[in-house]
Amino acid sequence: MIFRIAILSFIITLSFLFGNDSIIDLKTFPRPTMYTSVVNGHIVLDGHVDEAAWMQADSITEFYQSQPNPGHLPSERTVVRVLYDKDYLYVSAVLYDSEPDKIIIESLEQDFDSQSSDAFALMLDTFNDDKSGYVFLFNPAGAIKDIYINNDGTSMNRAWEGIVYPKTSIHDYGWEIELAFPLTSLRFNPSDGEQDWGINFLRRVRRKREDVYWSPIEPFEKLISVSKGGTLKGLRNIQPGRNLQVKPFIIGNQIRAEEKTKNSDAGIDVKFSITPSLTLDATYNTDFSQVEADEERVNLTRFPLFFPEKRDFFLENASLFEFGDISNYLYRMSPSRYRRSFSMFHSRRIGLEDGEQIPITGGARLSGKIGNFDVGYINMTAEGTENIPQTQFNVSRIRGNFLKKSNFGAILIDRNSNGEDRDHQSMGLDLNFNINKILIYTYFAQTENPETEGENTAGRVAVAYRDNKWDLSAYYKKVGREFRPQVGFIQRTNVGESFVTAGIHKRYSSGRFLSLNPYVFVNQFDNLDGYMESRNLKAGLDIQFMSGAMLFSGIIRSEENIKTPFTIYGAEVPADEYVFNSLGLYYRGDRTKFITINGNASLGDYFHGKRNSVGISASIKRGYRFSVDIGMNKNMVKFPDSTVNADVYTLKVKYNHSVKLLNTLYFQYNAADEKLVSNFRMNLIHAPLSDLFLVYSNISDLKGVEKNNGMIALKFTKLFAL
User: Fold this and answer.
1) pLDDT tens-digit map of 652-688
2) Which one of 83, 264, 429, 519 is CB 3.0 to 4.6 Å from 90, fit for a cystine?
3) CATH match for 22-238 among 2.60.40.1190, 3.20.20.70, 3.30.70.260, 2.40.110.10
4) Can you list the alpha helix ranges (DSSP code H) found in 493-637?
5) 3-class DSSP assignment, residue 214
6) Tens digits of per-residue pLDDT, 446-475?
7) In this structure, are residues 218 and 675 in contact, taking their beta carbons and an 8 Å threshold?
8) Which residue ranges make up each domain of the chain?
9) pTM of the prediction?
10) What is the sign of the dihedral through the CA atoms of 149, 150, 153 and 155?
11) Is 52 helix (H, G, I), strand (E, B) or coil?
């Protein structure tokens, strides 16, 4: 072993001495291959790569930078090995570090911020189809971030949770990690012979902003690019098992302050793989008491806000049911990358009405692949209340795949109440075409509601291009007056929307900046009654600093033609034509520091007045276990005859004793509504995907108009994998 390390060190030293000869072309470098074999002996999963079985395994050491010096050899050595037996796939990595005291650990939380931490990650393409797969990221303390990916990374399910047993250790020469993946938790085609899997590895050295990959990718791509992985050979006679998971849960001591009741309840979730690529999920007496409260937000527009789904059952495989103004992490395909203006299916419409939780009796979801098609079906029943009838929801989705990243599909959504004729139906067709860095997203949709007649269709055509330098996109969307997706979300109707943008990317390998992205766009809404409703022109500059900080800035010129007056927190905006300018800023600090300062601002004119919105927050960390986040968002809109003050204050305290015991205390105060939201959550992960939650949540109306709505619950879940 010592002799092998000496030879490898000598080779790497020579490579650095003749560095220019070692620079590769990331675009044309061939996809690498590695070999695995059956475990010879016994592996003790303790985070120490010292078993004889590891020493006999094939090892890979050739990694290449994606950033900050694309194509160069890494500054630190990494050794990765893969073994397997009839029950597990084993992966180990020795991550040498010349300055181990400078290893950065961001937190112990699940789905930690992997961009702000040292990390080891792998991608598994178990069907070797260059389209779907799993990504697992780990930091040196053993925290996990896992993602299920589809369509070669263009759609991701960040809420997916896999089963893996990780162990890490930190030494004076770096850190080590051992991983065991149960084969029953991975989907793949059973075979009596040998099969190949797609695979890739990432090692991140955070203080150097260095990302190195075994199978190289371009700087603007990520590990989720399945088709850019290498090949794992040598897997023989492995079976995925029945892949049956049963997860019962028990809730006790639940108190709702408004009704002043105490009760206990139970339910069950079941996951069964009908085939290696088709899974049935069923739930009965579903409970979401452990879900964190929504973030308090101030709405200074005349359009509804989109609140994301947070409930685990609906988040899993959510990307399959996406239909609408979806985007792609590589492209700027809308005025905001993080705000959605239309989604045909938004699962928050199930079991939530105007912020009130409606009990869900149960339901099922079928999702996965049949041949070259992605298929999905959801059936859910929401119980009735005093004002809301019992409602059934049915969602059907099919998507056919062609080429490497392209697909076409259809969606059908049906809602009916009290078992009577349907009270809503929506349907749509979409095409996503991706070839040679050109992306085309298009859809046509229609809704049917008994109470409406007229133009009830919507359609969109979007075209985008992205390479190392250019980011170009444009779209046109038309939405009819009566297009109303009752189980979805739409911001504007009766409009034709146009959007065109052009941006340039400039990356640096040293100095203060990691990348600069200047861009411009125009976004215009034309009312279908024959006039321009609004138009925004923006010149922006996005900056990523080598430290990890980010600054997004832009100057916006807005034109608004208001035909019907509307109010903002009681202040009226009269019907008129308005032209005004504003400056927008967003800054996120280096999250590896003891104190991280974040800020945002929107300053300038606003309709017939002025708007000054300023937000600032500070995150204070003591190690990676304890943190305090304090935030203030002040919004002042001053009109000639009135002033709107809408401020939000937040306080979040986290103490994570280990990767298995996580605690969060959260307060939010909305000064405009005089509403205080309090939330405490303790999560003990006593086994993989098995939890004990203690949750307290309360919404206090300080104006005294509404009663307080509080709840405390103890919830226990246990996963049985059969």
Assistant:
1) 999 999 999 999 999 999 888 888 999 999 999 998 8
2) 83
3) 2.60.40.1190
4) none
5) coil
6) 999 887 778 999 999 999 998 888 999 999
7) no
8) 22-238, 299-504
9) 0.83
10) negative
11) helix
